[in-house]
Amino acid sequence: MNISETMIVWLVLIVNFIIAVVYMTVMYLRTKMRYVFVRGAIMLLCPVTALCCYLFSYILSMIFKEEDVDYANLSLDKTKKEFEQEIDKEAEMKRLPIEEVLTVSTAKDRREAMINLLKTDISDSMGLIRKAIDNEDPETVHYAASAMTDIMSKFTAEVNRLQAVYDEDRTNQEVNEEFIDAVLRILGSGALLGVEEMMYLYMYTGLMENLAKYYPAAITGEQCAMMVTALYKEGKSQEAEKWAELSLEKWPDAEQSYLNVLYIKYHLGKEEDFYRCLKELAGSGLALSRKGLDIMRYWMKR
């Protein structure tokens, strides 16, 4: 090898070294990835060859440019995306029990659930609206409070109308029953609390006593059940017990009659009477509701 060939080799090595160092410096500053040092070392150990390979691969990548990877469509991410696209979220929110939505959902979902609820007849959902008033989301509370105010205003107007008609003729059976049903509906909604509830309980017991005076045969099992509860909450335990026993005499084949007796015997602490009624219910052969079955299972194990 003559001097000129040696100089050419050294020149190639020096240029290769400079390119490797520049590559490592520039690429590390751009990417902050350590693999650039591995590539630089390969360039130094395999002069010209490594550089040509990297240059060739770069040219190929430019010619056959790959599309950017959509990481949202990979593996589980893709499944999640397709799953979310298939769900009609608004429809699903309507199917969910609003108690669950108010408890575990986001503020946005709670608001949507309240708006959907308010589009329906909320007269049978006042207990849920009362729960929504205690929610942590201010906008949900605003919707619920507005709805509660509106429905209570309408109900108060209806009660006032019925009270006026009732006062004109307290012996009118149709008016008695309509008034009782209206008060029964609001008491059973779960919307009333404290003093407001007690006011309607006293109103209810007065109406029921009047109905019992003029039309005792017209009293229904549902009305009798609420009468037991109302009298007990008013502190009239003996009268509540009398109504409970009356309901069992009048409707011996109704599950609610037994539940009325169990309710008052339990609250009065009459354990012997309570278990006797429970055994009678067990041996009655009645097809019990889920509530009745749960009560039976719980107390028969004790």
Number of helices: 16
Shape: elongated
Low-confidence stretches: 74-89
- First-last Cα distance: 106 Å
Task: Offer a concise description of the structure.
With 302 residues, this protein is mainly alpha-helical.
Descriptive report:
By secondary structure, the protein is mostly helical. It is built from 16 helices and no strands. The protein has helices spanning 3-31, 35-45, 49-63, 75-86, 89-95, 98-104, 107-118, 126-133, 138-168, 173-187, 194-214, 221-233, 237-250, 255-267, 271-282, 290-300. The model is unreliable at 74-89 (pLDDT under 50).
Defining traits:
single chain; 302 residues; mainly alpha; 16 helices; 76% helix; elongated
Task: Itemize the secondary structure elements and their pairings.
Elements: H1 3-31, H2 35-45, H3 49-63, H4 75-86, H5 89-95, H6 98-104, H7 107-118, H8 126-133, H9 138-168, H10 173-187, H11 194-214, H12 221-233, H13 237-250, H14 255-267, H15 271-282, H16 290-300
Helix pairs in contact: 1-2, 7-9, 8-9, 9-10, 10-11, 11-12, 12-13, 12-14, 13-14, 14-15
